From TrEMBL:
InterPro entries: DNA_glycosylase, HhH-GPD_domain, HhH_base_excis_C. SMART domains: ENDO3c. One of its GO terms (molecular function) is endonuclease activity. This is Endonuclease III domain-containing protein. It comes from the Bacteria. Keywords: 4Fe-4S, Endonuclease, Hydrolase, Iron, Iron-sulfur, Metal-binding, Nuclease. Pfam families: HhH-GPD. Residues 37-194 form the HhH-GPD domain. Gene3D superfamilies: Helix-hairpin-Helix base-excision DNA repair enzymes (C-terminal), Hypothetical protein, domain 2.
Length: 219
């Protein structure tokens, strides 16, 4: 079934009052750390960890790089799996050090090179890599998560559920616009949490007249 991605975007954009760029964070580094901490937990828990780091004035790459791992574990404890995540953060920082902890240097690199390097870091999967690329490095890399797959398969997107097929579908059918990519993923998350939930609230959904599931169940 054909899905007009921009039609879906415009309907969601008019429905949700999201901040431009959507992902919360004071700077790119905080976004990068948040993208890793959000694995397997909710954002409230991530925020507690980020606040712990900020309260100690450690929210910068060098400070976290040189911080003993047991101290880092304590700071990020609210995010769960904190011993594993502390190791992952250290792995990410070890890689970032090869770029002199510089976003300016990173920004000059091509997306695919950075993506491959990120995916080679233990603890960074595709969703985390793409979140870092898009929201922290401002690279055109669409983020796919479980919400995206659930919502778009309900809408009627008949493609294989593997990550890269989904990602390519979005990237091949959307204008190459960073802010659009950022907002679109955010809108999918908002809509999936509020309306297209595990048990969807189809009658309240702005997308219902575009949706295969709605047409099948309610017509
Ligand atoms: S109509 Fe229902 S299934 Fe379709 S997108 Fe909306 S909430 Fe999800």
């Amino acid at each position: 079934m054909y899905i007009d991605l921009m039609e879906v975007y415009n309907k969601l954009y008019s429905e949700y009052n999201i901040p431009e760029g959507w992902w919360p964070g004071d700077n790119e580094f905080e976004i990068m750390i948040g993208a890793l901490l959000t694995q397997n937990t909710n954002w409230n828990n991530v925020e507690k960890s980020l606040d712990n780091i900020k309260k100690r004035n450690l929210m910068n790459p060098e400070s976290l790089y040189y911080l003993p791992i047991n101290e880092l574990e304590e700071l990020i404890r609210p995010s769960g799996f904190y011993t594993v995540k502390a190791k992952y953060i250290k792995n990410l920082l070890e890689w970032f050090k090869t770029y002199n902890f510089s976003f300016e240097v990173i920004n000059k690199k091509e997306k695919e090179i950075l993506r491959n390097e990120l995916l080679n870091i233990k603890g960074i999967g595709k969703e985390t890599a793409d979140s870092i690329l898009l929201y922290a490095f401002n690279k055109l890399s669409f983020v796919i998560d479980a919400y995206t797959k659930r919502m778009f398969s309900r809408l009627g997107l008949n493609i294989k559920v593997d990550y890269d097929t989904y990602k390519n579908f979005f990237e091949n059918n959307l204008p190459k616009d960073i802010m659009l990519y950022k907002n679109y993923h955010g809108l999918i998350v908002e809509h999936s949490k509020n309306i297209c939930k595990k048990k969807p609230l189809c009658e309240n959904c702005k997308l219902k007249f575009l949706c295969k599931t709605y047409k099948t169940n309610f017509n």
